[in-house]
Specification:
Immunoglobulin-like; mainly beta; six-stranded mixed β-sheet; 6% helix; single chain; 3 domains
């Protein structure tokens, strides 16, 4: 699908995401803490063994001379190490909990047996939890993070998350940029107090409404980072690891990039664009040619976008005690410094990247409405209820194909994540249309206020109890989650 075709589908310029004028040469919202991009981007260590240990422990990290984090870490790393495996591998992972809180690991996007999925009822307060599962999974950019009820947001915010990358023969045949030409980027916002300490302190209105929106951007755990690149083609694996913030990924001066993958791996076709909306939990796999930049450096930015009010939420954030930019504000994320010629100065992508094999809407065994609401004195609900650990909310027959309609009746965005499946987005109401990543397999989809988004999925995971929830982690922790059996 070429860019003109995509623009026609998405209706850019006529829908709700109409972009306001702005300057790309600097941060547009002065409440984002950033100076010059003076800190080298760190790249997490990789785990390639199929048997290993992940230890969660306390961390005391001096990020810069001015910034300090008393947080949590996996294997003494923030973010955690990148797990890189091959399709068909059998994994043995020992999770060791040394943080003094209940915790469990969810392998976000992986389809594994229920006792391996990180259901909140499987938390451990100390000791170890043994994971054993096979990777019968497409190549893709997945991730892992804790999943205890009520405190997932706090633990992710304090540092417990990491990439989980799967490779396979289909993807390797494309000869995509790898090694130094493949860069994983997890983008997260954080809140800093007057003493320069990163703090997790969502107010009650933030817990109930917006989620925590910080005033500092970290990329791979580093504020104001830069990365040196050559003037050629790079593969960026981007993860929105924030609790609540949505990013509209773009490059300074609207340098184009090509989207090749999403939550569940390669797209059917590459799509060129210059902006990409990403909600918490979503991933994007993109190619960018830095030789197309007009200068020796270029910023990765979050471009401004409008959030439908659905009754009026935006603008309330600063009344809730937050000094950070509101949802939809524009600001810079990091800088790429371009030097020298590249060994990867071009890449020939085929018109078709992968076999799609999406289920047809006519094959659905049933359509299931999922109502997303805000109830006074209770908070956000799914089909009128908040999470209870043992109550089964939705029962699905193994092997069935279903269409789920996420209907957002509330006045805030909800990125909806379903465990144990990858789904295809069929359509959304209104003028926004599908974005490039929604042409592929997904496990998380953004539902704006007033929108209805229809997705189709086949439930072929092992039988058992899983969850689905809003991936605004303050919403999830406050009950916007349900059990799926």
């Amino acid at each position: 699908m070429r860019r003109k075709k995509f623009l026609k589908i998405a209706g850019i310029g006529t829908g709700v995401l109409a972009f306001s004028p702005w300057l790309t040469s600097c941060i547009t919202d002065n409440r984002v803490r950033s100076g010059t991009f003076s800190n080298k981007l760190p790249l997490p260590n990789e785990i390639r063994e199929t048997a290993f240990e992940l230890t969660a422990s306390h961390a005391d990290v001096k990020l810069t001379e001015e910034l300090h984090l008393s947080g949590l870490q996996f294997n003494e790393s923030i973010p955690g190490p990148t797990i890189r495996q091959n399709r068909g591998d059998d994994l043995n992972i020992r999770f060791k909990n040394e943080i003094g809180q209940d915790s469990i690991i969810h392998w976000h996007g992986l389809i594994v047996p229920p006792e391996m999925d990180g259901h909140p009822r499987d938390v451990i307060s100390s000791g170890t939890y043994e994971y054993q599962f096979g990777l019968n999974q497409r190549a893709g950019t997945y991730w892992y993070h804790p999943h205890p009820h009520h405190i997932t947001g706090e633990q992710v915010y304090k540092g417990l998350s990491g990439f989980f990358i799967i490779e396979d023969d289909e993807e390797k045949a494309l000869n995509l940029p790898d090694g130094q030409y493949e860069i994983p980027l997890v983008i997260q916002d954080r809140r800093v107090n007057d003493s320069g300490e990163i703090v997790f302190n969502p107010s009650m209105p933030e817990q109930m409404m917006t989620g925590l929106l910080g005033d500092l951007i970290l990329v791979n755990g580093m504020p104001s980072p830069y990365q040196e690149v050559e003037a050629g083609v790079y593969r960026l694996r981007i993860l929105n690891g924030s609790n609540a913030r949505i990013y509209n990924i773009s490059f300074q001066d609207e340098v184009p990039f090509t989207v090749i993958g999403t939550d569940g791996g390669l797209l059917p076709e590459p799509i060129e664009t210059s902006e990409l909306l990403m909600a918490p939990g979503e991933r994007a796999d993109i190619l960018v040619d830095f030789s197309k930049a007009d200068s020796s450096s270029i910023q990765l930015i979050s471009k401004p976008f409008e959030v439908p009010s659905g009754g009026g939420m935006m603008g309330m954030q600063n009344m809730m005690g937050s000094d950070g930019p509101e949802q939809g504000a524009g600001f810079s994320l990091m800088e790429f410094r371009i030097e020298g010629e590249s060994q990867r100065n071009s890449i020939a992508l085929p018109d078709q990247l992968s076999e799609a094999n999406f289920p047809e809407a006519t094959s659905a065994d049933q359509t299931r409405p999922i109502q997303l609401d805000m109830q006074m004195m209770a908070g956000h609900t799914i089909n009128g209820r908040q999470f209870e650990m043992e109550r089964v909310d939705e029962r699905v027959k193994q092997g069935d194909t279903e269409i789920w309609e996420f209907i957002n009746n509330s006045n805030v965005p909800h990125p909806m994540h379903v465990h144990a499946v990858q789904f295809k987005v069929l359509e959304r109401s209104g003028n926004r249309g599908l974005i490039p990543t929604e042409t592929g397999w997904k496990d998380t989809v953004l539902v704006m206020p007033g929108e209805t988004v229809r997705v189709i999925m086949k439930f072929d995971a092992p039988k058992g109890l899983y969850v689905f929830h809003c991936h605004n982690l303050e919403h999830e922790d406050n009950g916007m989650m349900a059990n799926l059996e």
